[in-house]
Amino acid sequence: MNNEIIISCNWKMNPSTLEEAIELTQNIIQYSKHIPKNTKVLLIVPFPFIYCVSTLIKNTNILLGGQDCHSEFLGPYTSGVSVSMLKSLGCSHVLAGHSERRQLWKDTNEIINKKVRKILDNELYCILCIGENKTEYEKGQNKEICAKQLSECLYQCSENDLKHIIIAYEPVWAIGTGLNATTEIIEDVHNYIRNWFKEHYSETSSNNICIQYGGSVNPINVSSILNIENVNGVLVGSASLDSEKISKIMNYSI
Ligand code: PGA
Fold first, then answer.
1. What pLDDT score was predicted for residue 166?
2. pTM of the model as a whole
3. DSSP string spanning 197-240?
4. What would the pLDDT profile of 25-47 be if each residue is shown by its tens digit?
5. C-beta of 14 in contact with ligand 1 (< 6 A)
6. Is 80 in the pocket of ligand 1 (CB under 6 A)?
7. Burial 192-222 (b: 16+ CB within 10 A, else e)
8. Among 13, 173, 201, 235, which is least packed, fewest CB within 10 Å?
9. Which residue from 6, 32, 158, 34 is spatially nearest to 93, judged by alpha carbons?
10. Ligand 1 mutation pick, 238, 240, 246, 249, max ligand atoms within 8 A of CB
11. Phi and psi at residue 146, to the nearest 5°
């Protein structure tokens, strides 16, 4: 069983200038010096800031990730960003299937699967986001939706590929809303996800897969979330933009 905790900071389309991005990165570097031993910090920053952040974190243990990638390798795709570009800038991780991409850019499970394949083909780690929306949650379909997203987004992924996959369970109704999924819900769905890997792959893969939780994680709830069985990290949105809050999150205690 992997005991590593990953604190992933998803800046989304923030902050508004490079100067602010530099200041935030410098603060995070400072605060990351005394974080718990088994913990890694991953900065998932907007494309225009990647190169600069990559330079700033060079001699630290902080990891760098992209928020999305194109499903093709290269070519005439104006505004597209390929995995190889991200890799060449120092990214080790790429998000796929974030609910904002699914909602606003209409990324389907099929498109997400192509992106997952590109990320794996380039030997980067893929953080695959899954989770139900409010209506689905109210109908009690959370596990069903997660299962569908897992099987369609991981289509044709081998057991070996799973070594480069991280799952982020992010109930859409908890993202950016201040509404937290309860400990019971998080535990229930994370157990379900781990079992899903046992059923579809193997006990070893199931034991080793890293499952993060995301959705209104803050300095107050982070420790209790990380204490839940089968939670191996958190994906933090808005709180990761506030130096004081992210410092407290990175220095959680469980
Ligand atoms: P939030 O975002 O922490 O602001 O809810 C989480 C996410 O979208 O990854």
1. 98
2. 0.97
3. HHHHT-HHHHHH-EEEEESS--TTTHHHHHTSTT--EEEESGGG
4. 999 999 999 999 999 999 999 99
5. no
6. no
7. bbbebbeebbeeebbeebbbbbbbbbbbebb
8. 13
9. 6
10. 238
11. -60, -45
Please report the pLDDT score of residue 179 as a whole number.
84
Q: Which residue numbers are catalytic?
A: 98, 170
* Span from the CA of 58 to the centroid of ligand 1 (angstroms): 26
Q: Crossing angle for the helix pair 183-200 and 142-153, nearest 10 degrees?
A: 40
Q: Is the CB of 131 under 6 A from ligand 1?
A: no
CA 176 to ligand 1 centroid distance, Å: 5
Give the amino acid at 239.
A
Cβ–ligand 1 contact at 240 (below 6 Å): no
Q: How is residue 134 written in tokens?
A: 């409010």
Judged against a pLDDT cut of 70, whether residue 1 lies above it is answered with: no
